[in-house]
Amino acid sequence: MRKTILSMSLLVLFVSGLVAPVATEAQPAEGRKVMSLTSRSAVAISFLSDTGTKVDMVGTPLMPRARGEAEIKMKSRGPAQVKVELKGLGQPYLLGPEYLTYVLWAVSPQGQPKNLGELRIDGEETKVECSVEMQSFGLYVTAEPYYAVMLPSDVVVVENVLQEDTKGKATSVNVQYELMPRGVYAAANAPGATGPGGNPRDPLDLRQARNAVQIADLADAEKYASDTFVKAAQQLQQAEDSYQLDLTKKTVVTQARSAVQTAEESRMIAVQRRQAEIEQTAKQAAIDAEAQKRAAAEQQKAEAERQKAVAEQRRLNAEQQRVAAEASQRQAELVAERERSERAAAEASQRQAELVAERERGEREAAERAKLVAEQARLQAEADRAALRSKLLAQFNEILETRDTARGLIVNIGDVLFDTGRSSLRPEAREKLARFAGIVLNYPGLSIVCEGHADSTGTAFFNQTLSEDRASNVAEYLEMQGIPMDRISSRGFGEEEPIESNATSAGRRMNRRVEMVVSGDVIGVPLTTGRGR
User: Which of 121, 175, 201, 326 is the most buried (most CB within 10 A)?
Assistant: First the structure.
């Protein structure tokens, strides 16, 4: 008997999102997901009839550790027998909480998917045996929310590939087939939904039934397939009641699986009817658009003829108005010429008066601007002097005690910076004066008067001499630091100017001091040339 060659499609499916959809159905008003028709590449294998062969089952990037083998027995008559064994399948909920099980699919080269059965995780290995009413098909496994789905999801976890000894010939075909996008099932787990499937400790079949009814509801099955959807909801409630009454597992499973099948049937009816409704709406919209187009064309033609008549009438009116206007214009030009001559004479006289007034106004404004500029410069100078004075006060205070007075900034050198009863400066005094001088050198407009003071201990002559010597030593040290001599002067006041009572040791210590009076126009104080507070 001559062997005939039967072809079978082995689909090479990609991870969701790597291949763009060819077309997507319209989005419902409620914002619920609609199936997408997606174009994928595929490979077909031609097998010899009445033979058996094997293909490898390998995991996709979503489940890379999954692997196994599919044994396919082709017959010249009757369905092909398929036996699939897999290892390394992880729990489906790892791919999304909405996924509760796996389903084995066969897809024809024409893009028709066929649910071959459920793959449940049972230890390390997962097996399924089934028959396929196709001559050509490809095998793959998807994660699903329940076992009875009629369309595969786009979460492909396992696909078949040729072995070296596979009996058959691979050919490339272009296949289009429908996949349920991940977002449709994910909607069952959206805020406000009760999924996915409820308590993980409940029976898997019962959880799948809950998923199936909820997904059918999201597909508007209650609107488009009301009787079937109500039946599915009732079957689910029977399964829930049986589970709560602790009836046999077989009873719960049977009722739950019936609910799954009925819910999927209601969902598919809803999808078909909604699509028909969309197509009818689009058809009616096209008819309405064509009618509107014809009416608009007729209206446009009538409007064009009306506008043509109006334009002709306007042309005639315009011609009449032009002739009348030319005659009127000639008369008006004669009158206008006479008036222009009269205005020209008046304008010449007015311009002369305006020039005189403008010159006087300019002179006044220039004087006012000069006055304003001078006032602004004065205010800015005062602000600059105040800012510098405040800055120097802060800088001097970081070195020695300084106060702001009408005479200028008075920097106090206390008795502790001199040797006791002597005029020589201690090292720490020289260090502070060096820092002080470094600041003063930056401002050539500053002058310094060093004023020595003493307490009432000792004779008046001794105190006078000591105060003069201390003031003189401070002035000389500042000069050594680079401050020009003509900016420094010194004098002593002995015990004549105490700032505290000499009756206490603390008061006497404060009275023994040298005050450096810093003045100058740059800080708003005239240069100190004489005594006075």
Answer: 175
